[in-house]
Specification:
The complex is a heterodimer of chains A (428) and B (174). Chain A is of the alpha/beta class. Chain A is 33% helix and 19% strand. Chain A has helices at residues 5-13, 37-46, 71-86, 101-107, 139-148, 173-184, 199-202, 206-214, 230-240, 247-254, 292-295, 307-310, 313-323, 341-349, 352-359, 408-417, and strands at residues 14-19, 22-26, 29-33, 58-61, 92-93, 116-119, 133-136, 150-153, 157-164, 192-197, 223-225, 267-272, 279-281, 289-291, 302-305, 333-336, 361-363, 384-387, 402-405. Chain B has 7 helices and 7 strands. Chain B has a 7-stranded mixed beta sheet with strand order 4-3-2-1-5-6-7. Classes of the chains: A alpha/beta (428), B alpha/beta (174).
């Protein structure tokens, strides 16, 4: 019997099995941010265990509220900053060099096929796009990860999506993952890894694969995984070129992190997505999904483009292609947050920032802020936001507010029209 | 080991997420105690009054997919500082469930029919529950009724409950 990629990664990292179905894995990466890490740090200090297992494998960033908005968030940043300095954690991204964790860490080449990755953040599943096992965990798991470089998991069963056909113009990875979450429901993949495979995934950029894997957690999934291929190698090449003579050599090495053809799956879903339409959420759960056409005309007060789901350069390019020479509606305000300083710089050079500004967008620094209602775009009671983020929970972006999740293209079109609108209007 | 006994708070809804258990705006707190007044502040459930209904409760009984969403361990902490060390549900989100056991708390899964029974016979009746850890039994009692229900607990989860959490266990063993 063959093995899935997750089984292979577990086999290669298992330290032991202290109890039935309890796999303690060695960690290749422990990622940290300033919301869930400070309590781990202060607890380790209180226990007299203020140590780290390997400062080169720990990467840290201030991203959720940055620059600090008040004394409490300033203190959280300070605890993380002092700790990184104290332990010689060189890859610490402070204000000015910081970006949204699940965008900046891949951008710096920190994730490789076959890696095990944990972070005190549910959207850690994003990094599975590289053929890694990456899981969100809580502060206690993070604490043990920092201290010992291990984490315990029950064995995740795997479900596989085989996605055939081609996405039509105006339909993106975000529409696809919203469709998949609708099919799975919000707990349809609980305790499971979701493999995304097939011609649609093979044709996707790393950015789109990250968008897809990012929302695996919204169906309860432990990790979304794409198989490493030449697209993965190309993305990583500047970081791995000293390790391999050629890209083909890298591909051969990484190809060991593929599921075997005779691997066993909990369930296999196969779809032809050629007819898939742009999708958007309604209500307060990410599986409450309709087509944009069904929701067309829904009133919105704010548009937000950014986050670990859709704040990458590809997303900004798509939105800008729709917003070029257009103005946003007088009935709403719009915010764009490039997810890292490098993306911001690229967008500046490509004239994308100017397009957003001319259209009437507020351009903010890289931060998670608005997505979880912490800063930089919080909604008022009764307001609705057309958002490229990942969660539409009640009050997520501000108490009493509603969030409609959608692609950057749909968000851009909706900004111009002042209501939820299909971007295909602008691409005919 | 923590205490697993006391009055029950029934929340008859599925998919209660961690934003509802503890809203993100309180994640700037750096002590667990500071979360105490905000538990379930944003819960969408008709007739639920967080301050009144949480008072003196030690066990939470709810439906499917409890604790979905964010990985924030602030959710179990907010329960813990309010004296609630047990959640009984049809199912849990993975991260929330692990966070509970990592803190030495109980996240107990019961099949739908047993939960239906608990809601039907014990909701609104000043019910108490005690968990017998070694026998893996839920002892439930109201003024006019009492009984014992079996539940399943894995060895790892049981060890974490007995050791008071994952940090102590991991430090000794890894």
């Amino acid at each position: 019997m063959g093995k899935t990629i997750a089984e292979k990664i577990f086999d290669a990292h298992r330290v032991n099995m202290p109890f039935p179905d309890t796999h303690v894995l060695k960690l290749d990466r422990v990622f940290c941010h300033e919301i869930t890490t400070p309590i781990a740090i202060t607890d380790l200090m209180a226990r007299g265990m203020d140590r780290v297992f390997d400062p080169t494998k720990i990467k840290a960033v201030i991203d959720h509220v940055t620059p600090a908005k008040d004394s409490k968030t300033a203190e959280q940043g300070k605890i993380l900053r002092d700790w990184a300095k104290r332990h010689g954690i060189k890859d610490f991204f402070d204000i000015g060099r910081n970006g949204v964790c699940h965008v900046i860490f891949p951008e710096k080449g920190f994730v490789r096929p076959g890696y095990t990755v944990i972070m005190g953040d549910s959207h850690t599943c994003t990094h599975g796009a590289f053929g890694a096992f990456a899981a969100g965990i809580g502060t206690t798991d993070l604490e043990v990860g920092i201290l010992k470089g291990v984490c315990a998991f029950h064995f995740p069963k795997t479900i596989k999506f085989v996605l055939n056909g081609t996405l039509k113009p105006g339909v993106y990875a975000k529409d696809l993952i919203l469709f998949i979450i609708k099919e799975l429901t919000v707990n349809g993949a609980t305790n499971m890894v979701i493999e995304f495979t097939g011609p649609v995934i093979e044709a996707m950029s790393m950015e789109s694969r990250m968008t897809l894997c990012n929302m695996a957690i919204e169906a309860g999934g432990t990790c979304g995984i794409c198989y490493p291929d030449m697209t993965t190698v190309e993305y990583l090449w500047e970081f791995i070129k000293d390790e391999f003579k050629t890209k083909e050599d890298a591909l051969i090495e990484y190809s060991k992190w593929m599921s075997d053809a005779d691997a066993s799956y909990e369930k296999v879903y196969e779809y032809d997505v050629t007819t898939l339409e742009p999708m958007v959420t309604f209500g307060y759960k990410p599986d409450q999904v309709k087509t944009v056409n069904e929701m067309s005309g829904t009133k919105i007060d704010q548009v937000y483009i950014g986050s670990c789901t859709n704040g990458r350069i590809e997303d900004l390019r798509i939105a800008a292609s729709i917003l070029k020479d257009k103005k946003i509606s007088d009935d709403l305000r719009a915010i764009v947050s490039p997810a890292t300083p490098d993306i911001y710089s690229m967008a500046l050079k490509e004239g994308i920032i100017e397009i957003f500004q001319n259209a009437g967008f507020c351009v903010t620094n890289p931060t998670c802020g608005a997505c979880l209602g912490m800063s930089n775009g919080v909604l008022a009671n009764g307001e609705a936001c057309a958002s490229t983020t990942n969660r539409n929970f009640n009050g997520r972006m501000g108490k009493g507010g509603t969030v409609h999740l959608m692609s950057p293209a749909t968000a851009a079109a909706s900004a111009i029209e002042g209501k939820i609108s299909n971007s295909q209007l602008y691409k005919a | 080991m923590k205490e697993f006994s006391g009055k029950v708070l029934f929340l008859d809804r599925s998919d209660i997420n961690t934003d509802e258990i503890i809203p993100a705006k309180y994640l700037t707190e750096i002590t667990k105690e500071a979360l105490k007044p905000y538990l379930l502040e944003d819960l969408t459930l008709t007739g639920f009054n967080p301050i009144e209904d949480i008072k003196d409760k030690a066990v939470l009984v709810t439906r499917a997919n409890f604790g979905c969403g964010s990985s924030r361990e602030h959710a179990p902490w907010a329960l813990e500082v309010n004296g609630i060390n047990v959640v009984i549900a049809e199912s849990f989100a993975r991260i929330f469930r692990q966070n509970m056991y990592n803190c030495g708390m109980f996240a107990i899964e019961l099949p739908t029919d047993k939960l239906d029974y608990l809601f039907e016979h014990y909701e609104g009746k000043d019910t108490s529950i005690t968990i017998d850890v070694d026998k893996a039994k839920i002892i439930v009692a109201s003024s006019d009724q009492s009984e014992e229900l079996d539940f399943k607990v894995g060895e790892f989860d049981k060890t974490l409950v007995k050791e008071g959490g994952w940090v102590g266990y991991a430090d000794k063993n890894y």
